[in-house]
Amino acid sequence: MMNFSPVSKTVAEIYMVDDIVVNACVLIFLISFIVMNFVTVQALEYSVAKTFKLCAFMIILGAWVRYGAIMMTDNFYLLMVGQGLIAIFQPFLGNAASKVATSWFADDERAIATTIGSLSIPLGCIMGMVTGPFFVSDRDKVHHAEGK
Fold first, then answer.
1. Which residues contact residue 1 at a Cβ distance below 8 angstroms, ignoring those fewer than 6 apart?
2. What is the pLDDT of residues 58-86, one digit of tens each?
3. pTM across the whole model
4. Are 5 and 26 in contact (CB under 8 A)?
5. Which of 4, 46, 94, 114 has a 20 to 30 Å separation from 123 between CA atoms?
6. CA distance linking residue 111 with residue 16, whole number of Å
């Protein structure tokens, strides 16, 4: 979700897109969370295990689309398709913390299980914001411009 935010200007220069397009990577997640929130509740009531399996598959597929967009086509808009797949299915996992805690943990363990599950997405965002700039440097811009 947050991997391009701290380096949005550099990414915009490399892929020759506007900053707003790069920052839309975060916006996709926020909008899809609102839209998919209602679907999430129904899917989790149907089956937590099936929902998790479907979401895991789709998030992995989205990650591979992102990877292919960067490594094979160098097309930022195709990368956004992968980003969209991940964004659509992330709410299913993020909203499942209390359902998983209720189903899989004893009464005295539910509070800590829900807390850990609920904090996973914000902590992942923090990690993405902190570690992102370490993977992008001015050298990357030069190599990309030279076609390497």
1. 25, 26, 29, 86, 87, 90, 121, 124, 125, 128
2. 999 999 998 888 888 878 888 889 989 99
3. 0.73
4. yes
5. 46
6. 47
